[in-house]
Amino acid sequence: MKDMDDIFKNNKELERYANEYLITEYNTSKNTRDSYLYDLKELAIFYNKNIAYLKREDIQEYLRKLVNKKARTKAHYLTVFNSFYSFLVKENIIAINPCENIKMPKLEKKLPEYLSVEEVDKLLDIKTNTAYEKRNKAMLEMLYGTGVRISELINLTMSNIFLEDKMIKVFGKGSKERIIPINTYALDCLVDYLQFGRSALLGTKNSEYVFISSRRTKITRQAFFKIIKKLCEEAGIKKNISPHILRHSFATHLLHNGADLRIVQELLGHSDISTTQIYTHLTNEKLESEYDKHPFMTK
């Protein structure tokens, strides 16, 4: 398979898009940038020519070849392609965006999985005797108590913790900065880890990162995913679990308890409130479930 350098040689417009738009103007995260470029690389390999000048029929043909892909995946490809060709139109490289008038695949609205308050209590009820246990407890409490993404948590540095103010500063998608309050219990677990766990994990090494792995480096997303899966099994939680489920639980429980949608949007770092609004469907489901439990209410 061709590497990106080879593809850039035949696709100078794609190279400009990567460097001028994705990095400078759009200010995407590395993960998003890599994802967009990977999809465009596949398109370039498929046609083996400069993709800047593809026609609408070419894009439709490529989407048809994705017959075994889910609608959400096809929609993602179309979003990526549309972004690329919109850039080319804006730069007067092409006159018409070939993605215009191509219908977006119909997406089934998938509600996020979340834990009940009882399940969260079970998950968070773990021992804190060792340095590893103190770290795991602090990470779980921070995920549930602040709603941060796991990527934001593992990249949290010591300089971005403000214990006296009960705040942390994180950098979300597109390197957008936000300040998030920490509840008292999560703060206590964090302090306990910092005082009695982190130095034991670091040994003689130094690190700017808060949460340290057994290798004395920043803990990875994959490593913590395995930890949380194991803890859920031990707690008897049967749901398909991931660190992100605690973020969903944080948002859902806040809204269940009457929090303002705009506040939850700010805490989660959503640029568009429609992203946050999906959690209102979960609160509506909860209300309907409670309503159905009491037949007298339907009379």
Polypeptide structure, described:
There is one protein chain. By secondary structure, this protein is mainly alpha-helical. It contains 14 helices and three strands. The protein has helices spanning 4-10, 12-25, 30-47, 56-65, 71-90, 117-124, 131-146, 150-154, 184-196, 198-202, 221-235, 244-256, 261-268, 273-292, and strands at residues 161-162, 167-171, 177-181. Strands 1-2-3 form a three-stranded antiparallel sheet, with no helix packed on it. A hairpin with a 4-residue loop joins strand 1 (161-162) and strand 2 (167-171).
Give the CA-based shape: elongated
DSSP helix fraction = 55-70%
In terms of per-residue confidence, which ranges show pLDDT below 50 for 5 or more consecutive residues?
A: 286-299
Structural class by sheet pairing and helices? mainly alpha
Q: Termini distance?
A: 66 Å
| Spatial sequence of strands, sheet with the most strands | 1-2-3
- Biggest sheet record: 3 strands, antiparallel
